[in-house]
Amino acid sequence: MKSMPDVAEVPAQDGQLAGKEGGKLTAELANFAVETKGSDIPKKALETAKILVLDTVGVALAAAPLPVGRIITQYALDAGGSPVATILGGGAKATALMAALANGTLSNALDFNESSHIATHTLPAVLAVAEQNGLSGRDVLEAFAIGFETGIRITQAFDGARTRNGGPTYRGWWHVGVLGPLAATIAVSRLLRLDAQRTAMAIGIASCSVGGFRRNMGTMAKAMHSGNAASAGIQAALLANRGFTADPAIMESPLGFLSTLCQSGERDDAAISQRLGRPYALADKPRIKPFPSCAMSHQGIDAALAIRAQAPFEVEDIETIEADLHLFSLLRPDAPSEDAAGFSAAYLISAALVEGSIGVEQLGPPVLHDPRIRALMKRVKQVPGREREYGPEQLTVRLKNGKVLSVEIDSMRNLTTTDDIERKYRACATRVVSESAAEELRDLILGLDRLPNLDRLMLLAGGSPRAERPHS
Q: pLDDT tens digits for 407-453?
């Protein structure tokens, strides 16, 4: 990528954007989207991008039959308009804006997606626009990789203080609703080949859709942050392409994105000005979740499963369970619904001890209302947790006979092997499509860079009966 000119002295030329004096962050993002050649994106990043596409499509399909999936799908279809983009698992098409809304919501509904959540808004936006315009799989892959990279760096720029238990996250903002419209917009702008000036304008337009509060965790509205972001990304890029205006330096300017969200000492401009594409975040291993729940619950689940395997005992033998319940993130302790179950440490730990696993099936009825799990939840006690969000975590089970079982889990576990990732994908996808359709869809996604268009891929991902090949 070319180095940025001194924008205080050099005017914009040939479609390149010059930002305002004192900061060039919006210009950096726009020029990165426009100037980055496909050959500049590391092969490892593109391979990881395919894995994230596979994982995201899988978890979206798993959510399609759930109440949140049925509601958002029907809403998108009822909106009318030209049916040009497929709703995952919906068996039908809607407008690009509505398909992105539905697919973003589906991708985030189970909280089973990759841990950054960036794929849940950037990918649905890109898929909808690419399908509508007959663009290639390579176009999709590059735009997604660009959008993901900018999403990671924007997050670091405004929410880096989260690692110190501070910043916008700890004031109640949810980063998905904050960065999502911007990352999705950048990805779509790349896909539509907007120049840098219009891409910067699109970023400014997308800022009108920024927002979202952590209080909606454990509800259907939580997933809609991704749906809104995906739809807003398309809207902003299309408006900018028509000449709609916004502040072209929204990221760095006073009263803009960073200055409004961040307090003194919180913003990290270098995340964009120095680390954007240096290296690509996708060049690292993807953070593929093993459980359909908020990541802060995963060490507790793993500890519960380890204790269950440690020694034979009946659930009725348990006197108390001691754990850090992470009530800041896991704020639905009673788990009254499918949407809330993934945000209740007491429920997830109890279900793991009773069921011996945590998957999509454990989040809904009949498991959700199992009286053994409900009784065990009342015996889960909060103990003082670690000072930071991440680190070792201990779970202790005290039995009525005086025996104490305790396990410490050092860190959150991700799925890393191809077998584990594809096993998760198959379990999710086959909740909607046949095994043969799931396998063909997998092959198309992993060969995305060779597809001339998305027609067959989206037909399969839509769950349409027309996608099934006749038996020979």
A: 999 999 999 999 999 999 999 999 999 999 999 999 999 999 999 99
Q: Which CATH architecture has domain 25-283?
A: Orthogonal Bundle (1.10)
Q: How many CB atoms lie within 10 A of CB 389?
A: 17
Does 279 sit behind a cis peptide bond, omega within 30 degrees of 0 on the bond before it?
yes
In which residue are the tokens 């903002």 written? Answer: 173
Please check whether residue 229 is in contact with residue 177, taking contact to mean a CB–CB distance below 8 angstroms: yes
User: Which residue is it, tokens 């359909």?
Assistant: 292
Query: From residue 138, how far is each of 96, 133, 408 by CA, in Å?
Result: 19, 14, 44
Question: What is the C-alpha separation between 35 and 131, in angstroms, rounded?
Answer: 24
Looking at domain 295-409, its CATH superfamily turns out to be: 2-methylcitrate dehydratase PrpD (3.30.1330.120)
Buried b (16+ CB within 10 A) or exposed e, 252-264: bbeebbbeebbee
Q: What letter does residue 398 receive in the DSSP assignment? A: E
343: CB partners within 8 A, 6+ apart: 111, 217, 218, 293, 294, 297, 329, 330, 331, 332, 335
Domain range list for the chain: 25-283, 295-409
Compute the mean pLDDT over every residue in the chain, rounded to the nearest whole number.
Answer: 93
Residue whose pair of structure tokens reads 């929410």 in the numeric block: 159
Give the closest residue to 236 by CA, choosing from 190, 286, 276.
Answer: 190
pLDDT band at 93 (very low <50, low <70, confident <90, very high): very high
pTM of the model: 0.93
Please name the residues in contact with 407: beta carbons below 8 A apart, sequence gap of 6 or more: 303, 306, 307, 310, 394, 395
* Cα gap 135→452, rounded to integer Å: 7
Distance CA 147, CA 47 (A): 15
